[in-house]
Design goal:
Largest sheet: 9 strands, antiparallel
Number of strands: 11
CATH architecture of the largest domain: Orthogonal Bundle
Helix content: 40-55%
CATH class of the largest domain: Mainly Alpha
Structural class: alpha+beta
Distance between the termini: 67 Å
Radius of gyration: 45 Å
Order of helices and strands: HHHHEEHEEEEEEEEE
Number of helices: 5
Oligomer: single chain
Amino acid sequence: MKRIKNTFSKSFFKASVIVALFVMFFAPQNFLRAQTNQELRDQINNLSSQKDTLSSEVATYDAQINALQQQLNQTESELSSLVVEIDQTNQQITKTEEDLKVKKETLNEYMRVIYEESNTSPLELVASSDSFSDFVDRSEYLQTMQIKIKDMVVKIKQMKEELDKKKKDLEKQKDRVQSLKSQQASVKAGLDQQRAQKETNLSQVMGDEKKLRGELSKRMSAGYSYCKGGGGVIRAKNPIFKFPLDCGYISQGFGMTEFAREGSYGGQIHNGIDVAQIGAGTAIMAIGPGTVHATGTSPSGGWGNWVVVKHGNGYYSLYAHMISPSYLSPGDTVNTGDVVGGVGGTPYWPIHLHFSLYTSDPGPGPSYPGNTVDPLDYMDIPISTGGTDWGSGHAH
């Protein structure tokens, strides 16, 4: 029995070690296991800081790589020029060698003639010449040509020697440039590898930040949802519009909310209200009569699918994060309660409606934060509110 217990204890110990190692290496990192909203915000800020640092480092690597690539291009161009110049020098050397060969053959011929005539008696030379004057001219001509050709041979030899030296110098220069090119290519390969690693790290940090922002957004969207008639209606100060939804939970209000203080809007206020705890595709209704001012689709981190309605009293209402692009077109007329789209979300945000109320044309973007006001001051609230992201005067 004791042996069995010992065996069991050893097995249990091994299993414990394996479990501990598994947790150590494969469990989610601490930055994805925050317990409080403040921990989430701190970790998001930390990741955002890492993201900025990595982005800056990637940009630095890009600048270094681009500069080095320009140097490589210049080195490659210089190397190509050297190759062309060496080829031209080789052609010149070949031509010079051919000229030298011709001149030597001509010189040999002259020397042969002179030699033959030197073995002929003066009487025979005079006899073979038309006149004594002809004899003198012929002798001087042969000697003069011999001197000229010798001088030409000397010059051609010097030219060839210079060309040979030039070729050697060019070959040495070519070797140096090729060595420089190899060094530059090696450095660039190292920079490319380091940049790729930074890019991988940046993608990981951006992915982790996106997960944490999603988690924080879900937490801040958590609340009790009920529909119109399920509780008391909060009366607005100036109720000139109808609330765009009959069900849901106001997860974020207007102004410098908790989410805005976390930095999600680049230091700007939240320029509208968010309504969550509603199903995808829930009908979004026009808050008042007007005409469709603009529609569009922004990147997932922005408005998503959106539509703006212009109202006759100078206000513009924005309905964002719709499940699909609006079926409406600019210029279409809408009445209070008409459906303008369905609640959706984006890959960046959970399912909710973002609603803003502008007091001037928001532009084709639309602008952020723009000339916006708190919508809850202009419409009765038939759904649930609460938390700290809106004024206590709006809370149920």
